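Q: Hi! First time asking for a complex rather than a single chain. Here are the components, and I think there are two in total. Is that enough to go on?
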Amino acid sequence: MPRNRQNQGLYPGHMNKIYEKFAEKLFLLSAILSISVTILIFGFMLILGLPFIREGNFFNLFTQPWSPHQGLYGIYPMIIGTMSVSLLSIVFAFPLSLGCASLISVLGPKGFSRFFRKVVQFMTGVPTVIYGFIGIFLLVPIIREIFQGGSGMCILSASLMLTVLVSPTMILFFIDSFDQVPKTFINAIDALGGSKVQKLLYVMLPNAWRGILSGLILGLGRAFGDTLIALMIAGNAIKTPGSVLDSARTLTSHIALVIASDYESMEFKSIYACGISLYIFTTITVLCVRFLRTGPKGVTK
Amino acid sequence: MNIRNFIVGITMAFLTLSATTNVRADALDIFKNEKGIIKIAGGTAHIPVVKEAAKRIINFNPDIQISIAGGGSGVGIKQAGEGLVDIGNSGRMPSESEIKRYNLKVFKWAIDGVGIIVNPKNNVKTLSKIQVIDIFSGKINNWQILGGKNKEINVYTRNEASGTRAVFWKKALNKGKITSKANFVVSNGAMKSAISQDPYSIGYVSAGHIDKSVAPIAVDHVLPTLDNVKKGSYKIVRGLYSNTKGDPSGLIKKFIDYLLTPECQEIVRTKGFIPVI
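A: Yes, that's all I need. Here is the structure of the assembled complex.
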């Protein structure tokens, strides 16, 4: 914007500086705001979870089962549930998304790519509830019939449905990172007579891997935080799941299920501890990835 | 939960639009010249009756808006107590401490059974009380022992907020344990659809919600029918309550009064519950 103004000759140079300063402060303010919200949420959970933590229960949380009638408020089964549902969904979603993104960006014919891209963009806007319903009425009976055991409400069903949920986000992110590969590189491989597959394998993927990793984390984050699909399809049993065909409860659906209990009860207070652990897990994941991306010595790539 | 709110909301909006004038208007006369909004949340067993009552009131006087949400008895009591809704429904009597803490006024307007249900394809039709306890605790985990197919039993239960669960746990399971393998659903409606989908399932639901999509189980040869509940031969029964914070007044009081009129008690009967007057 400042450059335009200068071209029109309406404002002298120092006005530009004021604008720049103003914009800088504005963005600083919004940055501080968003950081403080994040910190405040953590503080809020910590303060409200304090009565629970003070009783020395916090670390028991991670080892005990959930059995409020016996005074056990552990979330170990839910942690396992969250981990298995989200990781499994990423295992399904990553190759699928990478394949789709490659097809759209490099391999596919132009018209087809454009159409496919529109479809994917449309899919990002579909509400989770819709996927939940499709899961209950289509996927769950199929899984139940195929594996001939259990209710069909299990980790596998939930993670398959989550795959559908997180894939569009990942695909779009991958496409973006493919688009950022310098044009000169692509021209060079075209000039050398490289095939599309060679272009993908030797130019696109090595140059876009950081974006791909970010997309992967973003997808993992969505899978981690999604409540509705797991709540509707995973079955919500409080037993520690032993296989992918077992019913399981994720941390988020656990919070959703327990939140309706009495405010004063220990069950209710334990959800704050749940929230804290969910928060910590997400932070650790993000930090790990940052570390991976920058390398051990802080050198990028 | 939200879906239910949404659907009810849509239904209400539609009914408001299609308001007809030829409604019997004796018990409804109290709503003449009234205006305002009634917010109701909580017990999911109550919804069929409350929805029908709301429909008639809105048809009679379109200036009144009524929103009905689910959530479970715990949610109903909590939200009424916190002043988030005008009327909080519960399928169990609020506890002493809840009544004291929130200064709740409790109105009982129907009696309901909690029935055990299985999929209609299941050929097991009757169970003893001991068998029920063993199934829900996980001790019996195959239908074959009970005369069904050689399939694992999928137990469904409700979350902590549910009054249906509280009553079932106390009166059918004698406060016994529920297997940790049990699947959790969040409303009577969700329980019904889960059971109707899963051929090897067992669960429990408000007797008023039992229809053709699920098959009721006779406990000690007594089916959870209206007659058996009334006669007292079916034992797993509870009241349906509406709770308000302090004494209700104005429109809210009129709504509660309406629930206890003969006309509305007739709705209670047709929806499969026992009237209280």
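A: The first helix of chain B runs from residue 2 to 17. Let me know if you'd like any chain examined more closely.
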